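Co-fold these.
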Amino acid sequence: MTTLSTKADDIARVLEDEIVGGLIPPDTVLRQEMLSERFDVSRTPVREALRRLAALGLVSFEPNRGVRVRSISAHELHEAFLVRAELEALATEVATPKMTPDDLAEMDAVERRFGELTLELRDQARSGVTGDATLFVEWMQANYAFHDVIYRVAELPLVERIAKSARRTFIGDRVWRARAELDQLYAKNDLQHRAIREAIGAGSATAARALAREHVLSSNTLIEVVLETLGASGREPGWG
Amino acid sequence: MTTLSTKADDIARVLEDEIVGGLIPPDTVLRQEMLSERFDVSRTPVREALRRLAALGLVSFEPNRGVRVRSISAHELHEAFLVRAELEALATEVATPKMTPDDLAEMDAVERRFGELTLELRDQARSGVTGDATLFVEWMQANYAFHDVIYRVAELPLVERIAKSARRTFIGDRVWRARAELDQLYAKNDLQHRAIREAIGAGSATAARALAREHVLSSNTLIEVVLETLGASGREPGWG
DNA sequence: GAGTCTCCTTTTGGATCCAGATTCGCGGTG
DNA sequence: CACCGCGAATCTGGATCCAAAAGGAGACTC
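Predicted complex below.
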């Protein structure tokens, strides 16, 4: 039985998830000793993990002062959506002529699931229940699953990697708290998915491309509206 | 007097340049001790630097076996061009309405310089001189300088960062050896730059966008043709 | 003679140790 | 009372040390 992975990589993956998931909020200072105790290792692999996160742009080193979780500005969030819009448009265009009937069937299945979750989520949002975030997380994952089918068919690993890393700047937790205002986004996303699916089914790469681009861009505008209504919402640390 | 930068970052920057510049060829195994001797430090900062390079995708860790400089496949190179095409198109579109007369003047100056170098390079290519690569490097830098004006005006740091990182997969050294076959690329690049400049000057964001996209894509096809004619060209280590 | 087992060298991953930088509190000074 | 300087506590960056994994040469077996 070989190790197959190094501790630095394991730690990096965990921290990565926690940062992009909003569990570790922006501007948090990560103390090396704290992390080394938590993961029960020395500071050496911790620092290597932090270097990786720094290269990914998730944290920033301030020499002799510590590492800080980077906060995403509104501008950066906007840019991330622009990047995703272009790259998902590209992936959709490339994927369209490569779609097999099986792939289309998978898209339908994923989309059906997404549609169901959308309904549930809209119900919950309208009823004003401030329940847990699990439903939202599921919905988000189903949303991504739809796009992931496209990425898989497109066979553009580099594009996929970059787009997914741009996807991460979208802090789920922050937006989740405003889910009551997201009714429009839920409905529109669902409709746009169907439109993309139909364009792909019709074999129109250019239409599918345009729809994919608009889909991401419209998500962007809605998210920005929501964040604006939220204003400078307070944020609990929930960590440290 | 503070340090302002850490050794790991310094080392990472140097290695980064050497890898993207082709000075350290793909598939090279980087021995930690060798690097620590070279930079006169211990292996600790060396490994942190390597972690950063790994996160950037320039090297890959093989647990307990070492780090290897990643070789870019033809498919990856193609993808990198696709990404650049989309993102430079986006940046050009965004930059167009923001261009001031001063910016346009700078574009003209940079483009003039690029045109001169293009002529020189075509002369050298036709004369069959197998001189040093400095002229090619200058030409490449002038080429990038043109696009950099657009990036600066667009004010999309994230887009710029991603596009430039995609730019790096283009190993200058490898293509340089085929410069005699690149006469078309030289001429076409120059003409396309002018077309982009004119579209921006005319304030047509959509035209500029389309031209920028085609510009990058046509570079791609030409590069691929060249690499194909080169076939599986041998490569000297020149290192280690 | 080919294949395999063993031992030794090399190299990596991780732990521990040390020097320098930053922070903070405390007392002195105008 | 505000301000400056000094020293301890804290934390980072880097060096050194150690265990374990991979690789390779030689002996041993069939």
